[in-house]
Amino acid sequence: MARVLVVDDDPAIREVLVAYLAREGHEVLEADSGEAALHQAVGADLVVLDLMLPGLDGWRVAEILRARDPELPILMLTARGEEEERVRGFELGADDYVTKPFSPRELVARVRALLRRAGHRDELVYGGLVIRPKERRVYLDGREVPLSKLEFDLLLVLAQHPGMAYPRERLLERVWGADFFGVDRVVDVHIASLRKKLGDDPESPRFIETVRGVGYRFREGAR
Known about the structure:
The protein is of the alpha/beta class. It has helices at residues 11-23, 34-40, 58-68, 83-91, 104-118, 149-159, 168-176, 185-198; strands at 3-7, 27-31, 46-50, 74-78, 96-99, 124-126, 129-132, 137-140, 143-144, 166-167, 208-211, 215-218. The strands form three sheets. Strands 2-1-3-4-5 form a five-stranded parallel β-sheet, with helices on both faces. Strands 6-7-8-9 form a four-stranded antiparallel β-sheet, with helices on one face. A three-stranded antiparallel β-sheet has the order 10-12-11. The two termini are 25 Å apart.
């Protein structure tokens, strides 16, 4: 499951996309303006972005999102189909482009492909560690590791982008949600529990590294 943000000022289009994406098992967020999109995008795994928005248009939203998170997949959605518009979209960092009117099934397939490329695969394998997102199961050296929901979500977020340093605040947003008002310490507690279950030594980590003064990252080349 991924968290997908649908940005469009047409409620009918949002309703259709929400229904199709939810049927795929995704958590779907909605925004009807550029300003709302920037707020809702915190913690999103992919953004479906209409370009013709009131106020802050999709071009500017894409530019800000790309500067904020270079890894965030963006699928642009617009009534414009001219080549120069598509080129401009890709130059701003769009990963894909769909022109209205569109087939919801095709758009969902494109979302699936973008998420797969971004790391939302059926199975993530790092040496002896196997993570199966759809089944929400984790195996280490052939044995299943029982994790709580939060521990699993925390591991998945980190493992989907090896080498990326995640600040504690970002992990709170991605795992606990933007409305969570707890303290950063809760991340440390869950990381400690996760490490213990994975047999991960903080001083010589096999999987989860501490980035001092920042947060945590999943070790590149984990074995």
